[in-house]
Amino acid sequence: MDALTSRLWPITIAFCVAPLLWLLLDIGLNRLGSNPIQAMHIYLGDWSLRFLCITLAITPLQTMTQWRGMTDYRQLFGLTAFFYATLHLLGYLSADHAWVWPIIGLDLWQSSYLWFGLLAYLILLLLAVTSPKAAKKRLGKTWKKLHRYIYLAAAAAILHYFWQLKGNLAEPLFYLLVLGMLLGFRGLVWLKNRRFGLTAPSKPHAADPDRAD
Amino acid sequence: MLIKTYKQIPSNEITDPAVFRQRRTLLKAMAALAIGAAGSDTVAARSRTWPDLQTGNPPVPDLQPTPAELVGNYTNYYEFAFNKEDATRLAQRLRIDAWSVTIGGEVENPASYHLEDLLQRCPLREYLYRFRCVEGWSMVVPWVGFALSDLLKLAQPLASAKFVKFTSASQPEAMPRLWQQAMLAWPYQEGLRIDEAGHPLTILAVGAYGETLPKQNGAPLRLVVPWKYGFKSAKAIVAIELCRQPPLTSWNRYAPDEYGFYANVNPAVPHPRWSQASERPLGSDFFTPRRPTELFNGYGEQVAGLYSGMNLRHFF
Question: Do B289 and A37 touch (CB under 8 A)?
Answer without folding.
Answer: no
